[in-house]
Design brief:
This protein is of the alpha+beta class. Helices cover 34% and strands 20% of the residues. A hairpin with a 4-residue loop joins strand 6 (185-189) and strand 7. Bound molecules: zinc ion.
Amino acid sequence: MRLFGHCCPACEGLESSLRQSCDAPALPGRRALFAAAVAGAGGVLATPPAVAQVFGGGPRQIAIHRLQTGESVNGTYWHDGRYDRDMLRQLDWVMRDPRMAEATPMDPRLFDVLATVQARMGAGSEAWHVVSGYRAPETNAMRSRQSRRVSRVSLHMSGMAADVQLTGRHSLELARVAAEMQLGGVGLYRRDGFIHLDCGPARRW
Ligand SMILES: [Zn+2]
């Protein structure tokens, strides 16, 4: 099982509209855009059915362990009808690109994907092991040069994707459960022992 220096070849196969959004230079402002979208929706963003089934209106927890840095974050990232800003900051940092020591505001819907799959797996407070989270453009470009399988753009660069493992859970089972949620993209990398999850359009590979 390769954990480090891996390339996520999956993050290709994106819609052209997503490619454009990945290329947009104003990525750090994405959370502001997300907040504006929420405000435009009257302060309430529709909760995806799968998330509502698992959490209802109750608090949403997440536990993340970053393999490259050994750091962990565990706590409630959504409560009382909104995302917890302090918790999101902690999550942004643990999801950073460790090669560049560069963080970005992650799309909070990615944590909904992770938390919902985690809960549906009955994993309780067991942590996701994150192989790859945010990927700086320089890191992605380097990997793209190293392997033709790596897309020049990916949702990792937009803070919308993570490559993850759950201890004791087979990647095949994780991918199956995640795909049933219809919350975003799901990629299975059996040989590498991880799955790719993102909060883009629901698709599977
Ligand atoms: Zn990936």
